[in-house]
Here is the input.
Amino acid sequence: MFAIITVMFGFFGLFGSKGGDIENYMDKKADNVTKTVYQFTMNDIDEKPVDLSKYKGKVILIVNVASKCGHTPQYEDLQALYDKNKDKNFVILGFPANNFLSQEPGTDADIKTFCTKNYGVTFPMFSKISVKGKDMAPLYKFLTTKEENGVVDAPVKWNFQKFLIDKEGRVVTFFSPGTKVTDKEFTEVFSQFVK
Here is the structure.
């Protein structure tokens, strides 16, 4: 049974590699892609509006997170990545979402406490949103739709899918939920943008 589940999860890209193709980004970089993450304002975990243009000039890693997921321990590696690179114009933005098996059931206050207490999270966390379906947040419509971002179609498959954004606010690529930030396929791409 476990083998069947593992095969199914692998098939749906939950454990696998990056889903995007950095060559698409390189091809599109020359184009005048006018839409960026800077056009969005999102509420932070304390429900205060944050204009994402405040992160201009930084490489951004956007991650949809959850407190009760098998991937939740990735918070530890995300925090370590942030600690190591935050002084190199890099930031992680965490977006809690309850879209997958109700694995993020708490309030924003619950989530904030959980992240601080269990993983010492200091990177910016935002208010809970939807990352798929009819109530998908506009930011995620942009991230997941090639027609919007100019680079890749990347519907969110599960918690901890990662989107890499360049210093101009453009989508570079995405990584599947099971790809950790310590994995070679992530670090090879990341190192091209954060040095």
